[in-house]
UniProtKB/TrEMBL annotation:
Keywords: Ribonucleoprotein, Ribosomal protein, RNA-binding, rRNA-binding. InterPro entries: NA-bd_OB-fold (IPR012340), Ribosomal_uS17 (IPR000266), Ribosomal_uS17_bact/chlr (IPR019984), Ribosomal_uS17_CS (IPR019979). PROSITE patterns: RIBOSOMAL_S17. GO terms for biological process: translation. It comes from Dictyobacter kobayashii. CDD domains: Ribosomal_uS17. The lineage of its organism: Bacteria, Bacillati, Chloroflexota, Ktedonobacteria, Ktedonobacterales. GO terms for molecular function: rRNA binding; structural constituent of ribosome. This is Small ribosomal subunit protein uS17. One of the primary rRNA binding proteins, it binds specifically to the 5'-end of 16S ribosomal RNA. Part of the 30S ribosomal subunit. GO terms for cellular component: cytosolic small ribosomal subunit. It comes from the Bacteria.
Length: 126
């Protein structure tokens, strides 16, 4: 009986250890998804200046692995530390917390529709 109870507690401890990961997680906004299976996530944090005590916003860019290419620009995502996957990628996508509005900048839409139109407008501006 004691062997069974100790075996159950060992299994429970193992399951609990798998649930609590020691890897750091961050929540940020996707600013680029142009590369294949890679997203660029901007994480904003508030810092206090050590001398002037003024609070300022600091942004950090992280390159994260997106296996399914499921993220789009503007999505709010959770990323987690992982082993180095490339020169810059040390994070992986855990989940998409909130989908973005899907709004695309006008210049990007115009460039996709007619690349010559953008070149003509640049020439006429000169």
């Amino acid at each position: 009986m004691t062997q069974q109870s100790s075996a159950i507690t060992a299994e429970q401890a193992l399951a609990a250890a798998k649930k609590t990961s020691r890897r750091q997680q961050k929540v940020g906004r996707v600013v680029s998804n142009k590369a294949d299976k890679t997203i660029v996530v901007v994480v904003e944090s508030l810092k206090k200046h050590r001398i002037y005590k003024r609070t300022f916003k600091q942004t950090t860019r992280f390159y994260a692995h997106d296996e399914d290419n499921s993220c789009s620009v503007g999505d709010l995502v959770r990323i987690e530390e992982s082993r180095p996957l490339s020169k810059l990628k040390r994070w992986r996508l855990v989940e998409i917390v909130k989908y973005g509005s899907g709004i695309v900048p006008v210049e990007q839409v115009v460039a996709e529709v007619d690349p010559n139109l953008q070149e003509e407008s640049a020439e006429s501006a000169e």
